[in-house]
Amino acid sequence: MQVTAPDRDQLRRLAELRLDRPVVLSLYLDLDPSEFGTQPARATAVRSLLDEAERRVREHHNLPHEDRMGLHASLTRASAFLERSLPTEGAQGVAVFASEPAELFEAIKLPRPVSNRVAIGRSPLVGPLARFERRERWCVALVSRRDARIFRGSPDGLREIEQIHDTVFGQHDRGGLSQARFARGIEKEKDDHLKHTGEALLRHFKTRPFQRLLLGGPHEVVKDFEGKLHGYLRDRVVDGRIGVDVEVATPDTVLEAARPVFEKIEREHEEKLLDRVGERGVTGIEAVLGALNERRVEVLLLDEQFSGVAGAQCAVCGLLATEGETCPADGAEMIQLDDLTDAAIELAVQQSAEVVAVRHQRDRLGDVGGAAALLRF
User: Fold this and answer.
1) What is the dihedral of CA 243, 154, 265, 366, to 10 degrees?
2) pLDDT in tens, 227-252
3) Structural domain span for residue 3
């Protein structure tokens, strides 16, 4: 199981699983190495999470016997995984989704810390995963004549996902035809290295698509490398090049050099989206929920600190509202939510909407309660 952030297809597949009974168990375990770097600390964290999960399962005593047994079986399987097979190398968090009735068991090893959470519902709790997907939209590729390094992340942090080293010989001083042949050989080795790097980058893109690509390294090498990239990748290259030492730069050094470009591009992206909302969108949580319920949302924009807004969700169809005891669509019971943020994000994921955590244009969203949506129609 690799350390990875979920992509949109994986998020949507999980979000679209909706049963007619609350028999899906979702667990999030924090493995932040600064707090849980030792085996005893991790074991304590696991036990605490499982104790909470056991308490939550007991609270569902009103379920039919078969469903209660299914929840207990799901918890038993999740417990066995976390206690015996917990992945730790490179992981800073783990998400586990289990439902014996739905034949679901999925564990995702996360690249960043996550708050401990337990949820039991009709579908997996994927809101926290969507937040991870947002934080993995940038890729940074550093290239020199013989080395390359690939990073994923956001302005919040970068993680290195691959290093590439190819043998490229230096020049010599023989002169004449021998020198010319040797120089052509060196150039071919460099071209092969850049091709190798481009293939690795494309492989990562196909596995976990990223939205933007930033390049760094010596100017002439970067220029040559960009010309060799697959069209899918060239379309995602942003203006700007970071000048760091490809061989020795740390992820923090790369982030420091890349952050101004990240923030410039993201600020411009937010501005464009909010301008378009004025032309074809809605603002305010009531209007946003209405558009989500109608499956009309192309982009969901939330203040990066949006939370704590209470609401309700239909137990049958998943409709969201700020209040209500019964669903206006089908008359079913509405489940009361202390915070509807994750439910709104999940509804956006189900309709393949982009979710944007607005951090540079918060004032514009603040006037409308921190939420807006760009509509498809």
Assistant:
1) -150
2) 999 999 999 999 989 999 999 999 99
3) 1-133
